[in-house]
Amino acid sequence: MVRVKKLKMTESGFKATDTHYHSDVNAAIAAFTWKEIVLSDSQLNAMWDRVHQSAGWDQGYIDSFVNMGQLPPEADPELPKTAQKGDKAMHEWTQHADAFLRALITLEGPGGSPDCCSRCQVSGKGCYRCLCCDNLGLVCEACMVVTHQNLPFHRIEVWNKLYFVKVTLKSLGLRIQLGHPSGDRCLRPTAAWGDDFVIIDCDQIHPVGLDFCGCGRSSKGQVEQLLERRLYPATVVNPKTAATFRVLETFELLQYESKLSTYEYYQTISRLTDNTGLHVPKDRYPTLLRIVHQWRHLKLLKRTGRGHDPIRGVSETRPGECALLCPPCPHPGINLPEGWEDIERGLRFLYALNLALDANFRMKRKDCSSEAADPGLSKGYAYVVEESAFQEYLKKHENETEPKSTCSRHDAVNLADMRPGQGYASSGIATVECSRHNAKRPLAICDMQRGEKYCNMDYITILSIQLCFLKLYLISYDIVCQWFIHLFQRISQIDPSSPLLQSDVEIRFLVPKFHLPAHIPACRNRFAFMLTPGAALGDGEAPERGWGELNPLATSTREMGPGTRRDTLDYHFGDYNWRKIVRLGDSLFKKLKTATSDVAEHVIAHQELEATINPEKLRSWTEAMTAWELDPANSPNPYEVLVKTPTQAAVRRQMAEDEEKALAKGVDVSLSDEVSPCSLIAMGIDLEGE
């Protein structure tokens, strides 16, 4: 950016009268008609002094003006404010955009490279280049094949005297030999079926010349030979397509982070291969879809140690065995000290399990495919329940209807029997997760067939803690005030040995903090986190945070078959738990600082408050609170408001009666004949509420 000041001769000297900004020096010069003024050195110095005083320039600006140079944006106080703010590097880059553009255009041709091969120096044959190699230059066909014996998935172009054209290494004579070390020749190579093998990589779909070992040196089959080279075959019989491990690993993490669909990713690779539409590669999208599904299932088994079991195979994986457990949550026999069962009742919260239940109706699934056509690979191995047992359970409860809410008009209760809509097989999913650390529980995800039915929530609650026998559970749910009624009766019919039915177990039901104000006052006292011992600073909204991350995946999963959808949810929830685990240190440290930062101030404030209360009343309050915390079922709730307050309708009626008596005595304080004091106050309350 060039700044140009127009000077005007006055009695006191030169003054800057006009300012223009131009992108380059030539435009700045052309903007004015310059008049040559001959001045002595002393006159020139005096002029600049005047200009400095009137325009506020320092010597650096004066020199830049004299030389018509370019002023840096941050050094020019009169540069437009939009150029002084924002990304400094971006503003600096705009001054060099032409140079960047010239460099990109230069790379579209051979540039200054000589015709000779940069490797063997043979003249007139340097017409091939690799877009993946660094500084290889233009080489001949033979050198290109030699240098890419171990780099068969690079992108090659040839100069045809007008422009570069894409070519394959296969067309140059490169063959990929499997079953042998690099450089070792096979005496009897066997070409892939039809010799039209295709490999999907991160940046291109490659037709390659591929040979299997047929000389007997390698005793491995074709599938094993491909896997040995980190190539995943599309089929187990006469494979003709494979994907590199690199493309599968990249897409796996990319989809976990961005919820990108397999179709969009494949289309990206296809366009990188040919973005003109003239030489579109043969469609390998269904192949990639199948490979990705198998790859993630194998990763699920591998990461949970199923490949190291010498006795049980994959098919004997136990329900929930591949789920990642939340490390800080209590797990008997894993992370609890000896004798934890004998801890006094008042300290049970140290080994309590905090659960949160919720449903998500954005994760619908269309009524496409079937269990027979798409049964899935994971049979309840991780987070989603095993389907056949779940369907048998639902058949026993298909005629049940949920009672209407005795609390507020909760849609989760009143719309529990609502169907998902025409063309949909599932109305959403339900979950149970750790509300303290936001981690999914094993076997804690199931489909919702209609609305938020109790039988679905009961099923996943029981399965998620079936092997977790503890002394205290804190369970939060949006409509827990309705759901917990007859809960133990329903659980006894499903699983009489459930940990929730043990004689010495204690269960405290809670309503998440965000949802609590929608409940009636009795619920707000009974199910409040802040009034429940052991609930600490939890809020019960953990599932809501997870839904926000999962919802972008709904556009993909709603079109999937039942098995593929369950598997996809398993994989994404596994990654969700893994990210929670690796960030657990920072998360717990942040919570620790929050809990301890103001503890001294809170203790002092509490002590000062107690000092103002009558000791006898304080003692009775403390006893009532302690009794309720130890036995909330049989002790009165000390936080419940016992004072009966009049309703708004009763107050209005009383005010109307008072006005009537005043008018009978001839007293009228109304603002007008149409608005009485009572109606004016009522209107104000309504406005405040709106």
Automatic annotation (TrEMBL):
Domain CxC2-like cysteine cluster KDZ transposase-associated: 169-277
InterPro entries recorded: CxC2_KDZ-assoc, KDZ
Top-level division of the source organism's lineage: Eukaryota
Protein name, entry field: CxC2-like cysteine cluster KDZ transposase-associated domain-containing protein
